Amino acid sequence: MKLLERIGLGRMSHGEYSANLNGLGIFFGAVLGFVMASTETLGTRDYTIVLVGTASMVITILYVSSSKQRLAYALLAAAGVALMPLSLRILLTPGAQLPVQLQPTLAVWLAMTVAIEFAPRETERKG
Hints:
Blueprint: H1 2-6, H2 14-37, H3 44-64, H4 70-91, H5 102-117
Helix pairs in contact: 2-5, 3-4, 3-5, 4-5
């Protein structure tokens, strides 16, 4: 760890942590916009179900970095992302097509959020 600190790659500062999370939110928000554009063939009921499921997963991913129970939310989000296609297929009209990129997009967002959240950080100075 000393070598990393010497070359400026030690613990993440509060500013770096905030920048990482903000960047992920902006980037994956845009990517999800493109992914959700492929839902145009879904009927209103199916679109609503996909939208509620996706919004729920996004909120859970954001909780990983906003809650004191970050490990619990990380596990919940991982289970949700893993089970999302199955649960949506059960709820959607037979033959309705899910956006193929939805699960990988949410999985990568979660993985990057977990990596940032659990990476070593400087302690915040109070005062």
